[in-house]
Automatic annotation (TrEMBL):
Keywords: Metal-binding, Multifunctional enzyme, NADP, Oxidoreductase. Its cofactor is Mn(2+); Mg(2+). The active site is at K96. It comes from Sulfitobacter undariae. GO terms for biological process: malate metabolic process. Transmembrane segments: none annotated. It is an enzyme of class 1 (oxidoreductase). One of its GO terms (molecular function) is NAD binding. This is Malate dehydrogenase (Oxaloacetate-decarboxylating)(NADP+). Residues 165-402 form the Malic enzyme NAD-binding domain. In the N-terminal section; belongs to the malic enzymes family. In the C-terminal section; belongs to the phosphate acetyltransferase and butyryltransferase family. A divalent metal cation binds at E138, D139, D164, N289.
Length: 757
C-alpha cells in the first residue's frame, strides 16, 4: 500500500489494507495436535460446560466472558454523521473495540443491530448477557438511548454503560473539576449555561449536579432556545427536568454572568459578544465536532483569561471519552461488577482529574511531542496515551464497586492489583519489582552524566516518586531549570536533586586534581585534567563515584559506548573494578530473554566468555529468575572445529572446572537454545531443562544484532544494558533509551553493591 496525500483515501486505505477491517480473532490456547483438539472441543470441552452449569460464576475461570465487552449500536446517532444505519456504523464500532484492547487489554466484539425500536433493541441486548461481562451501548439517538439503557440495567446483572452519555459526562466532570480549581471557583457557586439537550448534554448536567452544582443555577438551551416551564416544542421528560421558570428565551438572554458554558450542540452557537457577558475567568467547554460552538481564538479575543476545552485534538484540553471508558470497564470487569453506579463514575472522575495534576509521564510526553503538558488552564485532563490511567482510574473504580457492594469478585490486595495494572502497560514493571524492592533497602546517590537531557529529568522526577534514591545531575542549572519548566516537572534544584555545574562548581579544583592524580602517568597533564573536568560529564561522574560523592554513574544517553567506557575504566578501574561484559534484558511477549555481551568485548576470549556467563547468571537472579545459560554459536555441539564454536567450547571447559550453581550448555544455535524438543533430538544427554533465558554470544556483533532485532521487530522492551564487573558503580546505556528505561537502570544502580557484580 502506498501513502496517499489525500486524507480521505488514506483513511479508506487504512481500513482496507493489509486486510479489511481493524479486528481479528486469535486463539489463546494451542491447537497443534489431536490432544489439543480433544481438550479444546469434544470431549474435553464438556468438562468446562458442566462446571459452569453447576456454578455459573466459574464462567469467569473457564471462558473469556469476564474480559469480554460487547459494543452495541443501531447506528442512529453515529459521531457527527447522524442516522446512517447499523451497517455503516460498523467501522466506528470496530474502532471502539480496538481502543478497548489498546488501552485496557479488554477483548471486544462489535454488534451492529438493525433495530430502531428502543424496547425491541433492549430485548436483543438483554439476550446477550450469557456471552459478555459488560455491554457498551454506543451511538443510539436520544431519547431512545435512555430507554434502552434503563431497560437493560433493570433486567441485566452485568454493567450496561452508554458511553455517549456517561463517558462524556465523566470526562467533562474531570475537566470541570480542574477548571474550577484553576479559576478559583466551586461547583456549588457557579452558574452553568448549556446548549444541547441530547444524551451527552443531559448526562453531563446530571453529573455536574452530583458534583455539587445547584439545579437552579443550570440553564439549558437547545435549537429552539431556552428550555423553560410550559414549553411544548421538542420536549421530553428527560429534558423537562431542566426547565426553568423564566421569561428568558434565548442563549444570549441567559449567558450573562455564566461561569461555565457547556456546549454539546453545533458550530458557532456561542458568539464572542456572548463570551464578553460571561463571568470573570469564564470556563468554556465548546465540545461540538468537528467545529466547536466557538473557536478558542475567538473566545480569547474577548476573554483572554478564558479556560477552554474542545472536542478536537488540535487544541488543548480535548474532551475525549477514551480517557474514561476503557478504564471504568477494566475496573468493573475485574471485580465482576453487576452495574456501573454513580460512585464508580465519580471515582473515575476523581482519578482522571488527580492524574492531570501530577507530573506528566514521559510516555505521554513522547506521544505528544511539542505540546505543553503542565497542569493549568491549557492542561486540565491527562492525555489518552498516559500509561498511568489504567492503574489509577481502574483501581479507583474497582475500589468504589467493592465499597458499594456491587462487586461479585472483590479484590483482596488493591496494591498488588494496581501494580498488575501498571505491569500491563509498563512491560518491565513486574520483572523489575524485585529490583525496585532491593533498591529501597539502602538509599543510594545516582549521578547522571547527561543531566540536561529531558529523559534524564523525567527519570529524576520518577525516582523521587517511586524510589528512595537521590538523583545527582551534571549540567548547567539554568538549562536544567528551563527544560524542567517546559516539561512540567516539579523538581527543585537543591531540594530534590543535587547539581554539578561543569562551568562553575566549587569542587572543580578537587575534581581535576583527583583526575590528574589518577592519570598523571598516563599522559594526562594538569591542563588536560582541567579541560576534561570542564567538558567531559562522564569523567566528572566517574570521579564523583571514585571520591564517594556518588554511589553509581549512569551515562550514555548520547555518544558511543566505548568512549564512555574508556573514562569509566580510567577512573574506576584504578579502584580494582573491570568491565567484563554488558547484559541486556529483553522483555518479550512470551517472557524475558537476556542477551550478552552486547557492548564491552568485540571478540571475547574463552576466559571472558566464562566470566560473562557467570556475571549474567548472577544478574538474572536479581530479577527473581533462575538462570538457564546457552552459549550460542553457528557451531552446534562441536560440529564446526573453528570460529566462535572453538572459543565457546573452551569457555564451557573453564566453567566445568569451576563450581557454579547455575545451568549452562553449549555451544549451540539460537533455535536449539530456545526449543527444548529440538535440543533433545540433537543432543539427548544435554544438561539443560526447558528453554534458555540467557544467550551468550562469542561476537558483540551477534549479540547486539539479536538485541536490536528483538527490540525493533519483535516488540521487545530492553532493560539495560547492565555493565557487569564494575561493582554496580557505573552503567553505560544506549542512546535509544527512554525515560522509563533510565528509571529501570536507576533501580538497578540503586541496588546495594553487595547485591550486584
Amino acid at each position: 500500500m502506498t501513502e496517499h496525500p489525500n486524507s480521505r483515501q488514506a483513511a479508506l486505505d487504512y481500513h482496507a489494507y493489509p486486510k479489511p477491517g481493524k479486528l481479528e480473532v486469535r486463539a489463546t490456547k494451542p491447537l497443534a495436535n489431536g490432544r489439543d483438539l480433544s481438550l479444546a472441543y469434544s470431549p474435553g470441552v464438556a468438562e468446562a460446560c458442566l462446571e459452569i452449569k453447576k456454578d455459573p460464576s466459574t464462567a469467569a475461570l473457564y471462558t473469556s466472558r469476564a474480559n469480554l465487552v460487547a459494543v452495541v449500536t443501531n447506528g442512529t446517532a453515529v459521531l457527527g454523521l447522524g442516522n446512517i444505519g447499523a451497517l455503516a456504523s460498523k467501522p466506528v464500532m470496530e474502532g471502539k473495540a480496538v481502543l478497548f484492547k489498546k488501552f485496557a487489554n479488554i477483548d471486544c466484539f462489535d454488534i451492529e443491530v438493525d433495530q430502531t425500536d428502543p424496547e425491541k433493541l433492549a430485548e436483543i441486548v438483554c439476550a446477550l448477557e450469557p456471552s459478555f461481562g459488560a455491554i457498551n451501548l454506543e451511538d443510539i439517538k436520544a431519547p431512545d438511548c435512555f430507554t434502552v439503557e434503563r431497560i437493560c440495567n433493570e433486567r441485566m446483572n452485568i454493567p450496561v454503560f452508554h458511553d455517549d452519555q456517561h463517558g462524556t459526562a465523566i470526562v467533562v466532570g474531570a475537566a470541570a473539576t480542574n477548571a474550577l480549581l484553576v479559576a478559583g471557583k466551586k461547583f456549588e457557586d457557579i452558574k452553568i449555561v448549556s446548549t444541547g439537550g441530547g444524551a451527552a448534554g443531559i448526562a453531563c448536567l446530571n453529573m455536574l449536579l452530583k458534583l455539587g452544582v445547584k439545579r437552579e443555577n443550570v440553564w439549558l438551551c437547545d435549537i429552539h432556545g431556552v428550555v423553560y416551564e410550559g414549553r411544548v416544542e421538542d420536549m421530553n421528560p428527560i429534558k423537562s427536568e431542566y426547565a426553568q421558570k423564566t421569561d428568558l428565551r434565548t442563549l444570549d438572554d441567559v449567558i450573562p454572568d455564566a461561569d461555565l458554558f457547556l456546549g454539546l450542540s453545533g458550530p458557532n452557537v456561542l458568539t464572542p459578544e456572548m463570551v464578553a457577558k460571561m463571568a470573570s475567568r469564564p470556563i468554556i467547554f465548546a465540545l461540538a465536532n468537528p467545529t466547536p460552538e466557538i473557536m478558542p481564538d475567538a473566545a480569547r479575543a474577548v476573554a483572554p483569561d478564558a479556560i477552554i476545552a474542545t472536542g478536537r485534538s488540535d487544541f488543548p484540553n480535548q474532551v475525549n471519552n477514551v480517557l474514561c471508558f476503557p478504564f471504568i470497564f477494566r475496573g468493573a470487569l475485574d471485580v465482576g461488577a453487576t452495574t456501573i453506579n454513580d460512585e464508580m463514575k465519580i471515582a473515575c472522575i476523581e482519578g482522571i482529574a488527580a492524574l492531570a495534576r501530577e507530573t506528566t509521564s514521559a510516555e505521554a510526553a513522547a506521544a505528544y511531542q511539542g505540546e505543553q503538558m503542565t497542569f493549568g488552564a491549557d492542561y486540565l485532563i491527562p492525555k489518552p496515551f498516559d500509561p498511568r490511567l489504567v492503574g489509577i482510574v481502574s483501581s479507583a473504580v474497582a475500589r468504589a464497586a467493592m465499597e458499594t457492594g456491587v462487586a461479585t469478585r472483590p479484590i483482596e490486595d488493591m496494591e498488588a492489583y494496581k501494580a498488575a495494572l501498571d505491569g500491563s502497560v509498563f512491560k518491565s514493571a513486574l520483572l523489575m519489582r524485585p529490583v525496585f524492592q532491593a533498591a529501597r533497602t539502602s538509599p543510594r546517590r545516582i549521578v547522571f552524566a547527561e543531566g540536561e537531557d529531558e529523559r534524564v529529568l523525567r527519570c529524576a522526577q520518577a525516582m523521587l516518586e517511586e524510589t528512595t534514591e537521590r538523583p545527582i545531575l551534571i549540567g548547567r542549572p539554568e538549562v536544567i531549570e528551563r527544560r524542567m519548566e517546559k516539561a512540567g516537572l516539579s523538581l527543585k534544584l537543591g531540594r530534590d536533586v543535587d547539581i554539578v555545574n561543569p562551568e562553575n562548581d566549587p569542587r572543580y579544583r578537587d575534581y581535576w586534581e583527583t583526575y590528574h592524580h589518577l592519570l598523571a602517568r598516563r599522559g594526562v597533564s594538569p591542563a588536560i585534567a582541567r579541560a576534561i573536568m570542564r567538558t567531559n560529564t562522564t569523567a566528572i561522574g566517574a570521579v564523583m563515584v571514585h571520591r564517594n560523592e556518588a554511589d553509581s554513574l549512569i551515562c550514555g544517553t548520547f555518544g558511543e559506548t566505548r568512549w564512555h567506557l574508556n573514562y569509566i575504566e580510567q577512573v574506576l578501574g584504578r579502584d580494582g573494578a573491570r568491565a567484563h561484559g554488558s547484559l541486556s534484558l529483553m522483555i518479550l511477549e512470551d517472557g524475558p530473554l537476556f542477551i550478552a555481551d552486547t557492548q564491552v568485548h568485540q571478540h571475547p576470549t574463552p576466559e571472558q566468555l566464562a566470566e560473562i556467563a557467570i556475571g549474567a547468571a548472577r544478574h538474572v537472579r536479581r530479577f527473581g529468575l533462575t538462570p538457564n545459560v546457552a552459549m550460542c554459536s553457528q557451531s552446534q555441539f562441536g560440529n564446526q572445529g573453528e570460529g566462535s564454536g572453538s572459543r565457546l567450547r573452551k569457555a564451557i571447559q573453564i566453567l566445568d572446572a569451576g563450581d557454579h550453581d547455575f545451568c549452562y550448555e553449549g555451544e549451540m544455535n539460537i533455535d536449539t537454545a530456545l526449543d527444548p524438543a529440538l535440543r533433545a533430538r540433537l543432543f539427548p544427554d544435554n544438561r539443560m531443562t526447558g528453554p534458555a533465558n540467557v544467550l551468550v554470544f562469542a561476537h558483540a556483533d551477534a549479540a547486539s544484532g539479536v538485541r536490536n532485532i528483538l527490540k525493533m521487530k519483535g516488540g521487545g522492551l530492553e532493560v539495560g544494558p547492565i555493565l557487569m564487573g564494575m561493582g554496580n558503580r557505573a552503567h553505560v546505556v544506549s542512546p535509544s533509551i527512554t525515560a522509563r528505561g533510565l528509571l529501570n537502570m536507576a533501580a538497578i544502580a540503586g541496588t546495594p553493591v553487595a547485591e550486584y557484580g
